[in-house]
Specification:
The complex is a heterodimer. In chain A, 28% of the residues lie in helices and 25% in strands. Chain A is an alpha+beta fold. Chain A has 3 domains: 207 residues, Aldehyde Oxidoreductase, domain 3, CATH 3.90.1170; 334 residues, Aldehyde Oxidoreductase, domain 4, CATH 3.30.365.10; 137 residues, Aldehyde Oxidoreductase, domain 4. By secondary structure, chain B is α+β, with helices and mostly antiparallel strands. Chain B has 2 domains: 75 residues, Beta-grasp domain (Ubiquitin-like (UB roll), Roll), CATH 3.10.20; 64 residues, [2Fe-2S]-binding domain (DNA polymerase, domain 1, Orthogonal Bundle). Chain B has a 5-stranded mixed beta sheet, sandwiched between helices. In chain B, helix 2 packs across helix 5. The longest helix of chain B is centred in the last third of the chain and has 14 residues. Chain B is elongated and about 55 Å long. Chain B starts with a strand and ends in an 11-residue tail after the last helix. Classes of the chains: A alpha+beta, B alpha+beta. At the A-B interface, helix 1, helix 17 and strand 29 of A face helix 2, helix 3, helix 4 and helix 5 of B. Chain A: GO terms for molecular function: 2 iron, 2 sulfur cluster binding; iron ion binding; molybdenum ion binding; oxidoreductase activity. Chain A: Its cofactor is Mo-molybdopterin; [2Fe-2S] cluster; Mo-molybdopterin cytosine dinucleotide; FAD. Chain A: It comes from Maritimibacter alkaliphilus HTCC2654.
């Protein structure tokens, strides 16, 4: 059996030999053309003149395309139709594509693009949350509020009240493989694309719209991405559409890859937030009322900002029961790149907000932050409802947190750190445990569906295909293990094939951590149909179809024992179909976002992390010393893959809240557009001690083999790093540190200085 | 335009290049060895790491002309003569030292350079040596573990799992 085994990633042998093909490695015909965008050099304005003569006459240039030259709809947006491929007259952010150069090489296209003479009359740009609030630059006309109970009277009666705010920076995805697309024109006006995308179906739809053809004239294939993290959910649309349009106009294959700097300037990032809060507890230290104002910097177009901001609201409770709560979400429209999906999809920001409240209140009460958190957890025994009305079932955090705190000696270490800090005037240590409760399902209910195609060939070899895409997370491996396990054959017989809109149509993005849940079930559904057909065919002489067994490479029907290969061959010769499409739709979910009530999540994934840090109060320099994680993946489909997601998720989450700082200047120019100035965690930043364990338990709802989603939840374990730094800063004096994120050395230094000064 | 010739994975490769043609471009486009990946274009992510005359080099930071006459090894040249995986390659696979795989060729090449200089490095030395190779997926834990294992050291005490 392949299920639950820590098998290596299916592409591992190809990755370690360099044989795995990414889009840029696909052999192309000699006449393949290469594209580059010409970009806006101002954040907001009107294009008053555009002289592209020097671009058109530059070496290697075949064609220059402007908004006026586009054959179909000028739009790359996911939903709102507010994002032109090429700016038609007005520009809305620094780096917005204005025209498209088609040339004989990647470099010649980029060189030519730089020769344009574009004059833009600048208009006052709305760059920051403050700018946007001042002029009420909102999406949807104004803020959205969801509430439960009656906050104001409850707050008035509270024993202790805190108020504060935290700034939370954005995050660049920094997928190692930049955005890239390749389009090849076919006969009959068809277009075939190979694209690095988490959402081949959306690319198909947007390309069809841009070319003015039905969806069936466009086929999109994605074998693998060199990382996605949400950054390839919608941000690949521009390149794919540009390639398809250029291929359509020139009749030649066209490829486009962003140079890294362009990639960082053009594409959207994690939304930065400001969260203002007010919270009250009763005399027993129980939360009675919490109020949040979440300010979200969405950028110039809507993209996925509304569901991102919704998910932030949906995670404003994290693991805690808050009887009276009011969450107001301000989705601010600004002249910056359009913030987009990023692992966690708003959930992390919402969770930072409530974890900050827990940390701040514990400090005010003089309680151990962990004890305060534990005292406010949802009840395990009797499910309580979230602010949006979903009962919190299968809630394991009280036990999980207790186990982690015990095995990692939280209490002993906290005491030891206190003693150590008393003797250490310059260096200060800090420790924090933060929990994660993350809702699994797309909040847009109709996205929670998946299709699959399974073929058994007459030699007993199998191909599987589904709507999910592989970005390194091991989805293909997990789903192949499901198929092999169900057929009772070894992994070598199962070939994983590229995601292809021509094989499985109308798919959802590989996002919301849903890949294995949805596609694993869809593939199992297809496998079950084929097995059922083979079983009915072999069930003779009193053997019932349900008693036909598929195991150990054999099919057993009573006294008849066939190899899987023989069974396939025999079924084929007897005209039994060995191909099936599978389908799955997540049950038990419903959601009304206008009122913020319903049952949006099928279940919750849980985890907790303890992080210990040390800071230098004279410089703000800091280091993560030790991390202990206990995480809930239900019954793991592949523990090695799952642990890899947890380790990588923690490091990425900790990077977001510590070292990764995006800086825009007062002209709206992103100054951190390369790894030289934008610091993702490096190998040397990895914690010295890094203990990761899987919670021993199964999902309480019937997911595929009772496993749980693992893509996004571990990212939020990184919140413990921010809280540990806050704890270390707190050791400098009596005041609450009010540390914002990312907690760079500068911020840690300033916070420590402030806290120390108030002593 | 200049003619250059270099040995890439034991094979002589010639081509006409401009003065500014990068070694990474020559390897990928002229020699067709696409396992060398270009990640950041600016010699910071390390995905394009190769060996030039035995030394580890970020190939997007060297001109093809500078490698004229050199002996270049890329990820495609790291397997054993019989085609089986080399020790480091096998260790990356066995210890799950990869996810999306885009950084993997550069990681393997840097690891090979490290183990040549320092056959039994400490964990700290591995981390320091890899500081010029970025990975966005794994959190580095299993990469360090794979390299420690490839050096023949016991990795059972390296936590996680």
């Amino acid at each position: 059996m392949s299920m639950g085994k820590p098998l290596p990633h299916d592409s591992a042998p190809m990755h370690v030999t360099g044989a795995a093909r990414y889009i840029d490695d696909i052999p192309v015909p000699a006449d393949c053309l290469h594209l580059a965008f010409g970009l806006s050099h101002v954040a907001r304005g009107v294009i008053s003149s555009m002289d592209l003569t020097a671009v058109r006459t530059a070496p290697g240039v075949v064609r220059v395309i402007t908004a006026a030259d586009l054959p179909g709809v000028n739009d790359i947006s996911s939903a709102a139709h507010d994002e032109p491929l090429l700016a038609p007259g007005e520009v809305h952010y620094h780096g917005q594509p204005i025209f498209l150069v088609v040339a004989t090489s990647h470099r010649l296209a980029r060189e030519a693009a730089a020769k344009a003479e574009v004059v833009i009359d600048p208009k006052p740009a709305i760059l920051t949350i403050d700018d946007a609030v001042a002029v009420r630059s909102y999406f949807e006309g104004g803020p959205l509020t969801w509430k439960r109970g009656d906050v104001d009277p409850a707050m008035a009666k509270a024993d202790t009240i805190i108020e504060g705010k935290i700034e939370i920076g954005g995050q660049e995805h920094f997928y190692l493989e930049g955005q890239i697309s390749l389009a090849s024109p076919q006969d009959n006006g068809d277009m075939v694309l190979a694209t690095s995308t988490q959402h081949p179906t959306e690319i198909q739809h947007k390309v069809a719209e841009a070319l003015g053809t039905p969806f069936h004239a466009v086929r999109v294939e994605t074998r693998r991405m060199g990382g996605g993290f949400g950054g390839k959910e919608s941000q690949g649309n521009a390149l794919a559409i540009a390639c398809a349009v250029a291929a359509h106009l020139t009749g030649k294959p066209c490829k486009m890859r962003y140079d890294r700097d362009d990639d960082m300037i053009i594409t959207g990032k994690r939304h930065d937030f400001r969260i203002a809060y007010k919270a009250g507890v009763d005399a027993k230290g129980k939360l009675v009322a919490v109020e949040f104002d979440q300010y979200v910097r969405c950028g110039w177009s809507q993209d996925l900002s509304l569901p991102v901001a919704d998910r932030a609201m949906l995670h404003a409770d994290n693991a805690y029961f808050i009887p009276n709560i009011r969450i107001t979400s301000h989705r601010m429209k600004t002249n910056t790149c359009s913030a987009t999906a990023f692992r966690g999809f708003g959930g992390p920001q919402g969770m930072v907000g409530i974890e900050r409240v827990m940390d701040h209140m514990a400090h005010r009460l003089g309680m151990d932050p962990l004890e305060f958190r534990q005292a406010n957890f949802y009840k395990k025994s009797k499910p309580q409802e979230t602010p949006y009305g979903q009962p919190v079932k299968g809630f394991i955090l009280p036990d999980l947190v207790r186990q982690l705190a015990d095995t990692a000696n939280y209490k002993t270490r906290r005491d030891a750190i206190r003693t150590w800090n008393e003797k250490s005037p310059i260096l200060k240590k800090g420790i924090a445990l933060t929990p994660v409760k993350f809702g699994i399902s797309f909040t847009l209910t109709h996205l929670n569906q998946a299709g699959a195609l399974v073929n058994v060939y007459a030699d007993g070899s199998v191909t599987i295909n589904h709507g999910g895409t592989e970005m390194g997370q091991g989805l293909f491996q997990k789903v192949a293990q499901v198929a092999a396990g169900e057929f009772g054959i070894d992994m070598g017989r199962v070939r994983i094939t590229a995601t292809d809109t021509g094989k499985v149509p109308n798919t959802s993005a590989t996002a919301a951590s849903s890949g294995s849940d949805l596609n694993g079930m869809a593939v199992k559904n297809a496998v079950d149909q084929i097995k059922d057909r083979i079983a009915r065919f072999l069930a003779v002489d009193g053997v019932k179809p349900k008693d036909v067994l598929f195991a150990d490479g054999k099919v057993t029907a009573g006294n008849t024992v066939l190899s899987f290969e023989e069974a396939a061959k025999m079924a084929h010769e007897n005209r039994i179909s060995l191909s099936a499409t599978g389908f799955y739709a997540t049950p038990d979910i419903s959601w009304d976002r206008t009122i913020g009530k319903g049952h949006p999540f099928y279940y919750f994934a849980h985890g907790a992390a303890i992080t210990e840090v040390v800071i230098d109060t004279l410089t703000g320099e800091n280091k993560i010393l030790r991390v202990d994680i206990l995480h809930d993946v239900g019954q793991s489909l592949n523990p090695a893959v799952d642990v890899g997601q947890i380790e990588g998720g923690f490091v990425q989450g900790a990077g977001w809240l510590t070292t990764e700082e995006l800086v825009w200047d007062d002209k709206g120019v992103l100054r951190t557009h390369a790894p030289s100035t934008y610091k993702i965690p490096a190998c040397s930043d990895r914690p010295d001690v890094f203990n990761v364990a899987l919670w021993n338990g199964e999902n309480h709802v019937p997911t595929i083999y009772r496993s749980k989603a693992v893509g996004e939840p571990p990212l939020m374990l990184g919140i413990s790093a921010l809280m540990a730094l806050s704890d270390a800063v707190g050791a400098c004096g009596e005041a609450y540190p009010n540390l914002s994120a990312p907690a760079t050395p500068e911020r840690v230094y300033m916070a420590a200085k402030k806290v120390g000064a108030k002593r | 335009m200049t003619n250059v010739t270099m040995t890439i994975n034991g094979r002589s490769v010639s081509g006409t290049v401009e003065g500014r043609t990068l070694l990474s471009t020559f390897i990928r486009e002229t020699a067709g060895a696409t396992g060398t990946h270009v990640g950041c274009d600016t010699a910071q992510c390390g995905a394009c790491t190769v060996h030039v005359n035995g030394a580890s080099v970020k190939s997007c930071n060297m001109f093809a002309m500078e490698a004229d006459g050199a002996d270049v090894t890329t990820i495609e040249g790291m397997a054993n003569a019989d085609g089986s995986l080399g020790t480091i390659q096998q260790a990356f696979q066995d210890h799950h030292g990869l996810q999306c795989g885009f950084c993997t060729p550069g990681m393997v090449m840097t690891a090979a350079a490290l183990l040549k200089e320092n056959p039994t490095p400490t964990e700290g030395e591995v981390r320091e040596y890899l500081s010029g190779n970025l990975c966005r997926c794994t959190g580095y834990h299993n990469i360090v573990k794979a390299i420690m294992a490839a050096s023949g050291q016991d990795v059972s005490s390296i936590a996680a799992e």
